[in-house]
Every structure is written in structure tokens, then in C-alpha cells.
Protein 1
Amino acid sequence: MLGFLSPTSTPKGSTHRAPGLWAWIVLSPLLIWLLLFVVAPTLVLTAVSFAERDSLGRIVWNFSVQNYARAFDWVWVKILLDSLYYAFLTTLICLALGYPAAFFIGKAPERWRGFLLLLVMVPFLTSFLIRTYAWINILSKEGFLNSLLISAGVFNEPVAVLYSPFAIVLGLVYNFLPFMILPIYTSVEKLDNGLVEAAHDLGAGPLRAFSQVILPLTRPGIVAGSMLVFVPSIAMFAITTLMGGGTNPTIGEVIFKQFTAGRNQPFGAALGTILLFVFILALWLARTQRERED
Amino acid sequence: MALGLWTAGILAFLYLPIALLVVFSFNSSRLNIQWEGFSMQWYAALFSNKVLITAFQNSLLVASVTTVLSTILGTLGAWMLHRYRFPFQSALGLLIFVPIVMPEVLMGVSLLVLFVQFLSIPLGFTTLVIAHTTFCFPFVLVGVQARLQGLDPSLEEAAMDLGATPFQAFWKVILPFLMPAIVAGAMMSFTLSLDEYIVSVFTSGSQSQTLPLKVYGMAKVGLNPQLNALSAIFIAATFAFAMSAHFLGRKR
Amino acid sequence: MKKINRLLLTLFALGLAVSATAAPTKHLNIYCWSEYIPQPIVDQFSKETGVKVTVENYASNEEMLSKLAAGGGEYDIIQPSEYVIEALVKEKVLHSLDRSKIPNLKNIDPQFLNQAFDPGNKFSVPFMAGTVGIIVNTDLIKDDIRGYADVFKPENKGKIVVLDDAREIVTWALLANGLNINQITDKSLNKIKPTLEQWLPLVKVYDSDSPKTALLNGDVAIGVVWGGEGAILTNKNKKFRWVIPSEGTHLFIDSLAIPKTAKNVENAEAFMNFILRPEISKQISDEFPYLNPNLAARELMSKKQLENPASFPVEEELKKMSLFKDIGTKGSDVEELITTLKAQ
């Protein structure tokens, strides 16, 4: 499972050349960007996590490991696990909902594909807050869904859908679904129809054709989509607070609050550094496992 | 057929809140919560609200530049990492995910410190675009990487055999092949940048206030229905544009 | 490739043009809460004085502090709450005001002047004040609600909305235990922990931005919220009743101040004086129903506005309220306590 979902650095069947001067020049914008705006801020962050702060929240450069000592409390571990659980659930549901839709769009007549993709993206040109308040309106006790269900006679009493784990997952799935659909679409789009037909000709039923031919060929899209949903939803907290009622703290929220109201940037940075470390370690392990399998 | 129905269902799910949002743009109540009556007042008010309109223009500008930069960085990066074997290749592959997993507040504050105290770039349009590009380009890169996997290496070799330089081979053969993934990545970057709040808080200056920065505190007094009106107009305009492009393209 | 380069250059030039348009002689950069200073007021100030005003917004005191601490923007006016003014005064980062430039300060109710956070108002001018209280949907809750103890009762489980603000929640628990709200020590936090352990599991929604949403939608029936929210709800529907907790509550004063790094001090002082004009201050109250400390402005306001109990508490209620003091590094422990209890 882990191996299947791990991104590979060495795609099979491609020829790898040693980079010449030109290759380095073309790669340099990415390298410079990563060094300057990813590596450098991460180092700043790590440095801050070993510092102290004054009463106004400004960093005082005294070396200290107390932030880490505090960060390994069970509470923070539990919150991190909760966040990972929600991200995982979101990814699974997005995959289940998104794969068929991405498949349909990828196999639609060519002139419709761009239009259908746009149709998927347009809702996200609106502001996150009004989108979310619209959901709150739909799911609330006196909202659209409840009045519909009551007038249809399904329920007598309004049901509390909002401010529950269900609402959190719904909100996360809604906002991350396009990030699953788009990468899978690009994998489906290049799928050779001939291969699928060949599988049929060889007597494979639809299920076997899917699991033996289509699924492996669209695997890169599934992996990319899953990463683009799972990774950003770990630290996402605006949805959990707005639609979940804020009763289940998530790692992103805790770090945000320690940074702002808590005026404790070093502690927030320590939690963030641990999150980054855990994440990179997991990714690296998954990748080496997959390389061994191959 | 079943797939078509499924997709229609997904689209219905995606558009449900959008429909409500458009309906509420015609609501006479200031509070965006209960329906009270039909009114066009928010559209009228929107057109004279230069703060909101300026903020929206800033958002569009930042999102456009971010999308262009992210697409270039992401596409070239993915291609080079696919085509060549660089030292520390797998470390680079892991590093790409750091901006996506990093909680927004950490990225915002650490970039703020970097800009102000180390690089002395005044906060404004430039810093905002740099910050947005940093968390957007990995989306393009990861998407393009997925498309590249299983690419037939003979494609490029055939082009080179026909006398194309590596650059020409990339431009004429590889780039068209990658186009769907590039377009998908560009779309993701655009929407991500358009809606970013927390990173923007820390990296924007007073001349580069984007829409989310103006909108975020509004919930206190009720989200202004002018926002619904703005969204409705923007959606309608996007559709009009897409439709005309679609049907014009069809005639040809 | 060339095309793309040219596009990029144009876009960057456009970006420069956007920042270059703002270069007339007189400037004022305001850094304030979002939805607090109505735009027409800013426009009127520009028109009268010819000063080009830019407004940048924040959604919490701490956002503003982190940006200020990093030396981010160049702000001429900031709008911190009382305990933040206290911290900024202590750190000597505020400009000492020239009171002769702000004669309209005389309009402010003396009750809101000369407070411990800024004795003699050397550095700050009150903008708006407000309080935290209980809002009850009397259709759904029939009991007589007087204080926090009546809100956090087992029978209200799943019907409560509270501010998503750790310091506020801790303050209510301190008051319910008869403790001083500004004595935040390990000892006092330990003392109120059992109270919080009872209270927090009863809460359905934590929301600081718009607790009124859950109340209006009927998802909850009772809440401990900002006075501004309470005023909107009581204006909206008679079923909502506003109660000042019998145990006492927090009074906040949001003020205007000038950071030492400001480049346009004179314009900033002119703006402060402008805001304190009765008719301007009334305009703000018309838009946002907070407790207006400007007595001259109150004379212009309608009876309905002045009689809203969530905006204007009576004298006797005001006496039960106290201001926050800056708790410095203790804020982190307060956050941790509430997070821990929520996560259980």
C-alpha cells in the first residue's frame, strides 16, 4: 500500500543522462528558488525552534531545547495523529469520488475536455470564506438540507449535520477534490485506448482490464493526486474550525495559535519542525521501500 | 454512461454551494445567513466599492504572475529531474513537498523574516508573488512528473535523430505531450494563489492588499453580500469566456 | 520562450506601476482591524486633507504584532487593544502623542481615559470599546440565565457557542471561581482546570469571527460572545436576550496609536483628531454597533442605538467589568491549557 502510493524518483524505462552545463543552467532557477525560499526559511524556522522569546513575542537567541521537551507531550502527538487521520480519510474519499470523474473527462471527446476541466475548477475561483459559509447555510439546522428533508418527510426533526466530524470531512473533500481529479485526468488522458481493447480481446473482463491494465497505467496520476490532497490537508485548519466547530484541534491550528495568540514562535516552530521531519522521514521510507520492491 | 452520471453528480456537489452563493447575492439582507427578499443593491454597491475592486484586481494580478512563474518553474523542474540524473536527486524530490506540507503560518512568518531581515526586499507585490509561487509550483511539478512517468524515451530520441536540438525536441515534442498536465497545474496554481490568506498576511504590503486580506475579517459584521455579487460576476465572466472559446474553437 | 519573457516583464512593470501610482506628497498608512473603519470615512479624510490614505487590515492583535516586530510594513497608525498597548508602551515602541493636535480627545468619556495601560493617554486614543457577554435564544432556553454557571450546565450540552479565544475562556473560568482575571499563574490555572474540564465538553462550537451564525441558524441556543455580535442579534430578532454575566466580564478598549517608526506622524495625529469628531464617530457606530466611548457622538445617536444593551451596558454593569493586562509569555500556557482540554 505504502509502496504503491510513494512517488518514485526513478521512473522505469527512461534514459538518465549525466547533466551537462546546459542542464545545470536550465535547472538553476528551480535550485535557486528551492535554496532561497524553501531551504533558507526552513533553516530559519529550525533555528527559531531552538530559541526563546520575550514578552512581546520577539525571538531571543538563547539556545534552548525546552520547546522540544514540551513538544513530545502526548497531547501534541494525539493532535498530529488526528490531523493525519482526517487527511487520510479525505484522500481516500477524494480518490473514490474523483477517479471515475477524472476518467470520464479524460476519455471525453477532445474538444470537451478543456471545458469539463474548467467546469471542475470554476467553483474555486470564489472566495473560500463565502464558499464555506454557503455550506454552513446548507447544512445548518434551519438550513437548506434540513428543510428539504423535512418537507420530503424523511425526518420530523432537523438533524445536526454541521459541527461534526462528518462536516469536517465533507468540507475537506469539497475543497481538495479538484487536486485529485486534475492529476488523474492527465494520466487517463494519455492512456492508450488500444491497450484496453487488447486486454478485452484477450478475454479480460472489465474488472480485470481495470486492475491489470488501467490501474497500473494511471498509477502516477493516482499517486500525484493523493499527494496533492493528503499533504496540504494535514495542516489545513480553516475548514475544521468553521465546519467542525473547532472542537477537535488540528496541528495546523495549534501551530497557528502558538504563533499568534500564544506569542510563542519558538514553540510553534518546534512543532512545525517535528511535523516536517516526520513527514519527510515517512516519504523517504516509502520511497526506499518501493525502490527495493522494484 | 454510468461514468457520465457520476461526473454529473460530482459537478452537482461542486456547484451546490455556488448556486446558493449566487442566490444570496440577490438577498436584501446584509447578513449572509437568511433569505429576506430580492434586491440588486449589492451589485450596485459593488461597482462603487473601489477598495474591494482594487483588492480583486490585485488578487488577479498576483495570481496571474504566480501562475506563470509556477508553471515555468514546475514544468522545467519536472522535465530536468526526469531527463537527467543530478547529484542529490532524491533529496530534491523530497524538498519539493516541503512548501506543501509546511503550515501556512510557518511559511508566512519565515518568509517575512527572510524578506525583511536577510534580503531587504520591501513588502509588496514582489514578496507576495515570491511567497505564492513557492507554495504553488510544487503542484505543477508533481502533476507534470506524473505525466512524465512512463513517457516513451524514444519520442525524444526520434526527434533528435531527425536533427532536432534538445531544446527543439523539448519545445516541439515534449511540451505538447505535457500540455494537459501543465494546464492542470496552472489551474491549480491560479486558484490556490487567488484564495491564499495566511501567507499573504505576512508577506503583503499596504500597496498589495489582495481580496482574501480584505474579506477575512468581514465575518465579524456578516460577510458582505457584495462579495457574493463579485463572485457571481466573476463566475459568469469565466463561463462566457470559456463558452466563446469552446464554440469558436469548434467552428474551426 | 521570448514571448514568455516579455509577458513576465510586462507583468512586473505592471506591478511596479501599481506601486508607483501611490507617490503624491502626503501619505498615511493605516494598519487596522478589518471592518472597523468604514471606507467612506477614510475617503472623506482624504478629500478634506489631500492625504493619500492606504489601509491594511489584520484579523487579530497578534498578526499585527508579528508583522510589526519583524519590521514588516511602515505603518503610521495601528489599532491595538488595551493589553497590547500596555505591552507596546512597555517596550517603548510607540510615539508620544502631541495632544495639542488632538483637541477632540475632550469628546471621550473620562471613564475610558487615563487607564492603567496608558496613564494620561500619552500614547493612545480610545477608538471603540466593547464587552463580552451571554446571548440567549429565549425560544430554546427557558431558564433564567444570569452568569457563566448558568450557561455551562450539563443540560445545555451541545447547545453552546463560545469565542474561540483561549484567554477569554480562561477569564470566564477565573471569574466563576472568584479569581482576578489578570492573575495568570500556574497556580491559578491549576485551580480553574476542574471548571474548564466540566465546561469544554459541553461546547458545540468555538467561533471568534462570527458566533452569530450558529445562533441564527439554530444550531446552538446560547453563547458567550462579543457585545458587537450580541447587538446584531438583538437588533435582528427579539428572541435573543443579552445578559452581562453576574460574575463579571472583560471590557476591551481598542485604541489608535502611532508606532515610533511612523513616517507621517502629523497626518496620523490629524486622522486621530478626525476620527474623534462627533459626526464621524457616530458614522462608525451606525455601521458597527460597539460601545462608543465618544460622548459627543452619543448625543447624535438614536434612542434605539443607545438602548441596545449589548452595545451600551448600564453604569452598574460597567463597574463589574475589568480590562485585560498584558500577560506576556503566559499566553502560550493559556493556549496549551485550552488546547489540551479540547483534545481530550
Protein 2
Amino acid sequence: MTLKEQFIFNFIEDSRWKHLLKGLGNTLTIAFFALLIGVVIGVVVAIIRSTYDKNRDSLARSSNILNYYAFACLNMICKIYLTVIRGTPVVVQLLIAYFIIFASSTNGIMVASIAFGINSGAYVAEILRGGIMSIDNGQFEAGRSLGFNYIHTMIYIIIPQVFKTVLPTLLNEFIALLKETSVAGYVGIIDLTKAGDIIRGRTFSAFMPLFTVAIVYLAMVMLLTWIVGRLERRLRKSER
Amino acid sequence: MSDNFLIKTTNLCKYYNGGKIKALNGVCSEIKKGEVVVVIGPSGSGKSTYLRSLNLLEHPTSGTILFENTDITDPKTNINLHRRKMGMVFQQFNLFPHMTVLKNLTIAPTKLLKMSADEANKKALQLLTRVGLADRADAYPSQLSGGQKQRVAIVRSLMMNPDVMLFDEPTSALDPEMVGEVLDVMKELAREGMTMIVVTHEMGFAREVADRIIFMADGCIVEEGTPDKIFSEPEDPRTKQFLNSIL
């Protein structure tokens, strides 16, 4: 068969392209919500961990010693979260989420979004924590000396600078996340990869569907890279 | 009467490494309203630690700091409220690099004092005009010279209407030709009656502007007095040695 015939056979006949389109939609949905969840978890965990690291002394001295214990406890929870999530494969986490934790849910897309989001959050948290620790202490001091409390200093002054410096590393994580969603097929979700595989199973021709899937992933990653690159250039405006 | 001083420290101590290093070793001092106090001393004498303790950027190991009759070392005190009244200028400027000059100036008053954006912008431009930087309002800190950065940093503190300004070696990171422009701004502030505590190596500034000079060594105040007295007839041998080595 020529390429053209293969293309017609794999995608046009029986409207098999609809599988791919549906799969692409699911992949994007999962990746998008996982990214949101991951960033939120990441910011929170990174702030808790770096706050504890930077302020352990003053927390221990604070009028309310309960604050100190609460923070120590939160920090410990964060550390356990990071250890467990980074220490186990994402497929296993997905299976556990789907078959055990959310066993009663029939919304696979939602379960997968949450599972991938929780997974990504651990990596985002450590990327951001590295960024927070790299900001000059003078920035904290300037914020605090104006009268901002610790959290406001973080939100208004530190985190915006952190995002700028960690953007390339963060993009790495987002790319990894987007491609990792390709294991969603394990729990019966028809994502882009699974859709390609379904076509392959129907047509018994592997070349066209699998390469198409690969090219679509590649295109998405290139688009993402381009968008982040533009964002980066905009943020770098302040550096002359 | 306790009302005629703005800041009073009693037996201020700051120890590191469990007491092995005594950065501050029982500093008692009183700063009156409207006074310009210059703190001098050899490096490692504790003068920066003393200044940074006053707004609790360094937390003293023991001792008390009364600011406007409130003990700010008391853990129950909300230090964030008192810091608004204490402007701080750093050696390294510490401007926020991701914000324009205008945003650097307005972020604290708009967020903390609930000043409207219009009002804050207006005030920022007024102050910028006074330090000769009105045309740089939309620049980013990286586009400014050292002297310009420090003038912006001073204005940033002034935006909060502080009752006292703390200067931590404000000209030490500047090229020599830029020192003057920053000192001029500080002199004008002093003339207007701002209470100022300045840690500096600029002896000319100290002599001209200070009401009182505090000489520190080894974490203690060794000697204090008017510039005339300290520079002309220092009593303590350490003061003499220090002045001999720099003048």
C-alpha cells in the first residue's frame, strides 16, 4: 500500500480519525487539569517547606509554640508526600488511584487528572523550592522591612521572581507530564496513545497510526515550548 | 519621662554558635525623635547587627527594644505593624528586580496602607522628583546606576511615612562618584527633621550631619558623643586607634 492508501485505510475508513481526535481531547484535558493541580500543590508544598527551613528558629521562639509544632507537622507531611510520590512509578499511582482510592468513581478522566496532578505536584514543589532558596535573602529582608508578613513577601515579591528563574525547568516538568499521560490507557481511558493503538488493533497496520500519534505529541511539545519561550522573553524584559 | 525617646534598647545581646560569638554584648542606647545618629566602628564591631536588630531583621538573644513605647522584642507584638514605621535602606539596595521603579515604590503603601493606586503613584512621583529621578519611574532596577538604585530604595522606605529611617552602610556598595548623590538625599532628609540611624564609613557625612556619634567595638558601645567630641578628643583608646586608622 502506498502512504496515501495507508492513510485512507487507517484514518478515513470507518471514520477512524475520530478515535484520534477524541484521544487528543482526553490527553489535553488530563494534562491541563493535572498541570493546574500540580502547580497549586507545588506552590503550597514549596512555600511550607522553604518557610520551615528559613524560619525554624523564629518559629521555635514564637509566642505560640503550637505554630511551631503545626509547621513541623506540615513540613513532615510534605516530606512524606515527596518521598512517596517520587519514589513510586506514576503508573502504579494511577492504578492505585483508579482501582482503590477512587474505586467508586466512573469518571476516569477526572481520576487520571488528579493522579497525574498529585504526581506532578511533587516535582513542581521541589523545582519551586530550589528557586525560592536561590533568591537573595536581601529580597526577603526588603519585603519584611517594609512591613509585609512572610506570606505576603512570598506572594508579592519572591514567587514572581522564582517563576521567572525556574521557568525552563518547569517547562521540562510540563513536557514530561504531557507525555506521561500516555499511560492513561492502563485504566481504560482512551487518550491519544490508546486511540492510536486501537486503530492499530483494528487495521493491523502499525506504522501509520503510531507515527501519527508520535508526531502529534511532538507538535504539542513544540507548541508548549514555543509558548513558554515567549512567556520567558516577556518576563526577561526587566533584565534589559 | 519616657516619651522623649523614639527607640530605647536595654542590654541588647546577640550571640551566635551558642554564645561563642558575641555580635552584640549588652548594648544600651536611646534614640530621640528627630535625632541623627551615626554609628561607626571597625568591621565586626556589631554596628550592622545593632541596626538590624532595631527592626528585628536580627532577633536579639536577650535584651529589650522599646520602639514608640512598645517592646517589640515581646513575641506577642506584631512586628509587621512596627516595621512599617521603620524605613530600612540596605547596602545592596535590594530593590525588587521584577518591578518597575514606580511599582517598587507603590507596592507596600497600596497593599499595606490601603492607599489608592492613584494616590500612591502621585506620591511616588513627587518623591522621585525630589531625588531627581522622576524620568526613571518606568525603568527597571537593572537599568539604573548604583546611586540611582539607592535613591529609589530610600524613596521606597519613605513611601511608608516612617518615623525613623535605618541606613545600613548605604554608600558602601557604590562607585565613589555616586556616593555624593546618595548622601545629599540623606542630608536633606536630616534637615527636614527625620529621625535617622546611619551605619556608615563616611566620616565627612558623620561630622557634618550627625547630632551624635556612637562608636562601637566588640559588640559594645565604647563611646558616644557629638561629632566634635568624638573626632577631636576621643577618650577611649579603641576610638583613637580606629579614627587614626581611617582619617
Protein 3
Amino acid sequence: MTKPIIEVKNLAKNFGDNVVLKDITEQVNPGQVIVVIGPSGGGKSTFLRCLNLLETPTSGEVDFNGENLTTLDPKRVNELREQMGMVFQNFNLFPNMTVLENIKLAPMKVKAVDDAAATKRAHELLKQVNLDDHADTFPSNLSGGQAQRVAIARALAMDPKVMLFDEPTSALDPEMVGEVLNVMKELANQGMTMVVVTHEMGFAKSVADRVWFMADGFIQENNTPESFFSDPQTERAQDFLSKILM
Amino acid sequence: MKKKWVLFLALVIALFTGATMTGTTAHAASDDSLAQVQKKGTLVMGTSPDYPPYEFQATVHGKTKVVGMDVAVGEKIAKDLGVKLEVKSMSFDSLLVALQTGKVDMVISGMNPTPARKKNVDFTHTYYQGGYSIVINKADKGIYKNKDSFKGKTIGAQTGSTMYNESKKQTTDTTVKGMTSVSDLILGLQSHKLQGVAMEKPSAEAYVSNNKELASIPSDFDLSASDTSASVAFKKGSTSLVAAANKSVDQIKKQNLVNKDYLPAAGKYLKTNTVNTSMLHYWKAFLKGVEYTLIITVCSVFFGFILGVLLALARMAQGGPLMTGLRWLATAYVEFIRGTPMMVQVMFVYFGLGLVVNLPALMSGIIAISLNSGAYVAEYIRGGINSVDKGQTEAARSLGMSRGYTMRYVVLPQALKNIWPSLGNEFITLIKDSSIVSIIGVSELIFQSNIVRSDTYRGVAPIAVIMVLYFILTFTASRILNFFERRMQHD
């Protein structure tokens, strides 16, 4: 049995009186692509953000490679975050830096990579996301799809073991969704471990190893995409699928 | 004579330093003042060089220096003690505080030994006995004879001075108007806002001999000797120093040195001074003013910015009791600084801190203005940091960047861009507000212009000059700021 890279145990999170996550226990194995789907407000994004401690869990633990993040000192958490790239719904590129600088910043400051090496690696990554001709562009001059691909390249620049995607296509115009999903598919094919929160059912069907259906603060169903979409086990999932597949 | 010891100032200092000050005064009981001065080798004299012929600035061999009969008196005392004289300029109001806080060893500034002043400092015997005159326009010479001729008219005198008080007491149906500087009073006279100006006789004569449109008439005030005499002031309790100085003062009196040597010498300086009253002739004085204004502004902006960043971060600190305490402290600091006048802060740093460490006026001014500016900049920066989207922080943290790196490389640069116009405003405000340090005698533009005004007996021209100079400074600054603002535009 392979050792899981991410292990979530009895994770719970509330914002004041608002209970968002209730007792989640799941695990992600290396190389797996997990797609988290479910209705809005079901806690998907909060769950994802608990994995790299952007949100501090109220109780329970999140283990990365066997280390419990919730008990580590901030310095070690920073080190482990390097290994978990994250891509946001709104890209969150640094607007005051060029595409190339966006990608180079963290490797140079955090890993002390020298400028030449960082630049070389950044160009490689830009080629991987088909944007090498935009290296010196500022983010405000990029389309949404381009910006999101830069954001993926930026996260990859830290050579992460896991990539977390928080609704990466939700803020995009429909015609740009494809270019981003293609990059993600390619990444999955290369064997990257991925946890993807999305509403793209097509992506879930074709790329995911497991689908986690999340609603009301629980993972209601953990299934293969084939069985989940053809034969959902829970009533909650049936209800959800009937609404979106119309 | 001259302005009285301003009680307000004493109050401010006393309020802040209270116990410390009484402590120092009590200490002086064991008197080694003379030995200390001799050990130092210099005697520091404080004076307010805007009062010819007592003390004023003159250009000697291309260099600006303080001259006048009081300086001659100071030189005599220093020579008799076998030490060097060092002259420190500051506003009259600040002189006695400077003496009490050890910024200067003695004050010679046409100061008369009134009972109120005697409570705070020790005086020598008087070295000069003057009298009062009233300066009028020459055209009115037939109309006014003495203080009683001004019924229904207005006469002017320096605010808080003995002349001012006596003019009020000893005239009937006459309006007495007070102004801070004698140059302003003369200007008021020439523009017919005033019909006469009461001042000391030597000063009156200096003004009359330098301005053909003025004339002087006797005042006929009824005055006691202590109101018209001038003495040297020392720190309370410096008995040995006063005794030594008294020997010199007695010699001056006995040999009539003031009238025989000092006044004529001062007169000569006055003449060389006023041969050429064109503003161009004083370009060096103005240049020095610009230089100091820039030094103060640039240093204060630099340190104020650093302090502002630290304060802003402290105000946003979150976590345990330590962080809460830090936040509370920073908030209290910002509120307190914003809630007190910058002028009071400048005086407090110079005189108040002066009790603990002896800081030069320029450094005190820079410290005070930096401390002040930091409070305002902190608020701008806090607003700037809050204006940066939270997603930026999350993106940076998700890449493994620490809180500090995130702030430094991601949030602050963007915050800075957002608040650049506000910071620019602060910079330009500082250029103008740096004028406040003129009260502690830093030779920035305002201070220099006051000196040029009293040197040239011209009221308006120097003001016009510094107005233009200030505008050139602020305009250039705003152009430079705009340039950088454009360079930061990426979207």
C-alpha cells in the first residue's frame, strides 16, 4: 500500500457560529487526481484552503507527508507550503510584476535560486503553458485564460509535490476554459498529484481518479468518476447531479 | 526690554519634564559651573540675532556671523575667563529654556533682569542702561512729540515686551498693537497701519540711521532702572560663573566700553550690512536656508517613512498579548502625535530631551519632524496595506513565502503605489512645515528670511523671495513624484 501524501483526520472548521466543515477524514495518494465537486457553499474551497493552512482548522489534523501541519511552527509550515502549489479562482497574479517576475519571485526569495537559473526555469514553464511570448507582459494585459496559465506556471516554479486548484475556471469566459483545462490535463498526465475544486463535470469525468462529492460540510461520497456520474450512491449526490445535468 | 519670558513655554516644558527639571535645579547647589566651562574651553552664548544693534547677523568677508554689542560683551567675558566664545542663535522665546536645559551657558540678548526672570535664572550686574524711543514716519515729525501725542492713534511694540506693557499702562486713548518682530512693526509704520513704534533707544537709532523716511522721538515713559537695563543671564545656581562674569561686566561699565567701543563697532557692521539691501546680495543666506530646509525635509521624510512602516505594521499586529500591547502602543503613539501641535513637539524634543541628552538643534528638528511625520505616514501605509487585495497575500503565502517576505515583496510595493499621491502630499507638506524648526534656531528658510529682514530693514522683499523659493522646491518635488508615479503605472 502506498503511503498517502495528504491525510485529513476529523477536520472541522467554523467561522464564528457558522460551521463550514464537519468532521472530514480522507486521504490523497501520490499521483492521484482528486476532483471535489458539490453545491456552492458546501465548504469545498474552505476544505481546499485548510490543506495548505491558508485557513486554520478549528479541530482535527491535516498531515502532509506524515507531518501534522496544525502542530508545526510557522517556519516549517512555510517550507511545506512550497510543496503544495495553489491556483486561485481570481489568479492573484502580482500586478506590479511582469509575467516572468511573477514566476521568478518565490524561487529566488524563498529558495534562493539565482536569477539566471530562475529565468531559465520560468521560460521552460511558460513554454509548458504556451505563453513564452508573454514573458515581459504585465498581468493587466493578459486575458483571463492566459493569466490563469501564468498562475499555474508560477505555482509549478516551486516544484511542488501537490497542486491545489480552487475553482480555476470559474472566473473565465467560456471560450477560455478549454486552454486552462488542457494545461491541467497535461499536468495530470505527467503524474502530478492534484486536488481540484471545480464545476467542470467533463474534466472530472475524464481526468479524475476519484470524485469527492461535498455538501453541507461533509464529504458525502468518495467514488470513481464512472460510478459517481452513472450511479451516485447518496440521495444528496443524485439530487445535485439531476440539477446540473439537465 | 524685549519680550518677556514666555510663561507658556515654561509650562509646556514643566508639564513634560516636571520632576526632572526641579531635580536639575536642586542639583546646581553644588556649584562647579565655572570649573566646567574652563574644562570645556568654550563658553556658549545664546542670543536672538534680530535686534540691531544689540545683536544681528552681518556678512563679514563673505561669511555670515552674529555681531553686535552683546556679542562684544560675550567676547569680553569669554576672554577674561580664558575660554573661546561660541554663539548660538535662536528665537528670543527659547533663550531661557535653552539656558535651563544646558543648551547654552549664558544668555546675552538685550535681556533685562526683571523679578520674574530672576526667579528662574541668575543675572550679572547690568552692562548697559538704555532708554526707550518711539520711531515715527519723518513726515509726521511735527505732529508727535512723545507718548502722549498718540491720542486716538495706534502705536506698536514687540508682543510681550516691557515696551508693550508700559505703552499700554502709560498711554490713554491710544491703541497698542503687538507684533512679534520689529521688522514687521516698522513695516506697519511705513504702511501707516501704525503711527509710532516703541523700541529701545539704540535700536531706534539704528533704524532711523538706516532709513531716511523714519525719525525718532523720545518716549518719555516713566521707567524703573531694571526695565531698561541689560544683564547677562546664567543658569540658576551658577554662583562662581556669575561672579567671574561680574568682574568683566564691572570693567565694561567702568571703562564705558559699550558706548565707547561696542556700539560704534556694531554701527559699522550695520552700515556694511545696509549698503546693499538688494535680495541678490543675500543669496548666500537664502541658499543656506534652502539647504537646511532640504536637509530637514529629506531626512525627515526618510526616517518618517521607516517609522511609518514600522508603526503601520505594529498597528496591524495580531496574536498574543505581546502583539496586542504593541498594537495598543502604536495606536496611542499615532493618536498622541496627531493630537498635539508639531511646534510643541519640536520644542519638547529640543528642550525636553535636552535634559537627558544634549542634541544639536538641527538633529532635534529632524527627530521631531520625523516622529511627527511617521505618525501620519503610518496611517497612509495602513490604508495602503488594507487596500491590497487579500488574494495577493494568499498567493504569496501559498508559494511558501513567509509573512515578512509577503509583506516586503508583494504587499508593500503595491501599497506604496496606491498611497503614492498621499505620500507625495506629505512630502510637500513637510517642505513647508519644516519652517517650524526656526523656533529652535535652525537656519532654514524662514529663519534666514527673518534674519535678512532685520538686517536689511526690508519687510516684504525677503518674504517674497522665500515664497518663490518654497514654490520652486515644492513644484520640483511634485514633478519628481509624478515622474515616479508614472513609472509605477502598469495597468
